[in-house]
Design brief:
The structure holds two protein chains of two kinds. Chain A is built from ten helices and no strands. By secondary structure, chain A is mostly helical. Chain A has a domain of about 100 residues: Winged helix-like DNA-binding domain superfamily/Winged helix DNA-binding domain (Arc Repressor Mutant, subunit A, Orthogonal Bundle), CATH 1.10.10.10. In chain A, helix 7 crosses helix 10 and helix 8 packs across helix 10. Chain B folds into four domains: about 50 residues, no CATH class; about 30 residues; about 80 residues; about 130 residues. In chain B, strands 1-4-3-2 form a four-stranded mixed sheet. In chain B, helix 8 packs parallel to helix 10, helix 9 runs parallel beside helix 11 and helix 14 runs antiparallel to helix 15. The longest helix of chain B has 30 residues. Chain B is extended. The chains are: A mainly alpha, B alpha+beta.
Chain lengths: ~220, ~350
Amino acid sequence: MSCESISVQGLAASSGGIQALAELDDQHLIARAQAGERAAFETLVHRYDRDVLRLILNVLRSPEEARDVYQDAFLKIYRNLHRFRLESSFYTWIYRIVTNACLDHLRKRRCRPEDQAPEVAIGSRDEGQAVDFFDRQQERRVEGNPEQRVLGEEIGQHIETALASLSPRERMIFEMKHHEGLKLRVIGEALGTSEETVKNSLFRATRKLRAQLQGIR
Amino acid sequence: MPERFNCGDFESWAVLYAAGELGETERAAVEAHARECATCAAVLRREVKMCDAVAERGVAAEEIDRSGLLLSRCRSELAEALDDAEKRTARPGWRGMLSAQRWCAGFGRALAFHPGWSAAALLILGAFGGLGARAWYRETSLPLPGKPLMTVSAAPRISDQDLETMGVQGIRLEPENDGIAPNVEVQMFSNRPILVQGSADDAEIRHVLTYVIAHPQRFDPAMRLDSIDVLRTRADDPQVRGVLCQAARSDHNPAVRLKALEALDGSGNDPDVLQTMLGALAADDNSGVRVEAVNALLAALGASDAAAAPLDAGALGVLRDRMQNDPNHYIRLRSATVLERLASQEIGATGTPTPSRPQP
């Protein structure tokens, strides 16, 4: 038998093994990963990491920082996998670790003066100006000319700055709600808190954002 | 949900409305109030627009990694980090174990200001010391307080009547060497301690151990598991096989049932064993036992086509039922594999079509 045929067979066997792992449900993969099978852990990672990376990117808005947090979160998951009990949802457990990693990162970022959000020019906060801001946002979507695009980028920058003014926890909840589309109950489970607390944080975050954005002409 | 909205509270409802957190009835009530009150309608519009504006920003996050390059980079970096983590956990473990200085420093630090820990550490040391001394006494054959007064080396036969009045204190199995049957010690007690010594091939040893397995109400699960452990290599003896089948079917402890099935793995040419495996797959309420049963069945069919006893229509019914209805996905897949294998064996003779695999 030639070397080539051996390697082809080996490749087929290994891809067969990966395919077999991909067919297993979370419960079996977790059990095998807890027993030390690295391939089972990597299959679990590949099952969830796309959603995880999207959440991190939405929160941090920086691919470089997202890479760090992604690695940090999955290494924590790897080190603590033996503590996971199958009674609870693996998805919620992962999200709890990822959200905590994001929160830690946001807190660290707050301590670095170069990463502080620039001040937003706050004008008088009457209803009319608020409607103006959001109407401009609507126009941006309808019109496609370069002037509108520049205006749209400027508005996007304002939203970004307004989001940066939220506390890490408020921001996390706001992103999980509006970008991940998660229910408040699920967010509460991921953050280890009650739905009512999450709801109050969402109200607070919305009020702060509104106040920031109302001042923009 | 209030019957009539107070305009002062409406803002909170508008936030929940825009966040998609309200049910059908609540949404309808919010919309109805907004139709009646112009101020609240403006509040609702503003909330919805703000959510839309922010949500639009979220789409950009996916655009950052439209090609998937970032994700694959993250994955490869994680794989490298896992390699490093594995290396680190492998290395310092041995160094730490060998470094007496580190041990002493850690121990001293832990005990210095914790009298409770110190007491617990002394208790543990005492327990280990006691166990070590007992093992040493056993090895050097010095007289022990509980040492048996009589040693029976498979000479006088112990009847079932004797066993009814006896208890088993412990079973000791020495590891197997070069295919030689391992030495087994069964320590028993009635009026006086009795030690039965021999190998798993001795009739007396088998008699005592099969008695232990067959009487789950009298002996604790640890004894039954030890007995199965000794007899697992002797499942070719019909008497042993019968007792193992009985344990797999009716022992109230799932670990014992599982171990009995494991011991029967390789005896698939016996119709009773096959029935036992099928019975466990069909009716056992423990998914671990069912997994073992379906794997043993698959092994029995795969070992040798001629050696495996043929499966009747009832057995095929059990496999089809498990393939479709078992709550465990793995069992459904394995049942399908068994059926596929059976179908491939009979395909020429019967023309039975290959069963379709269950959907996850």
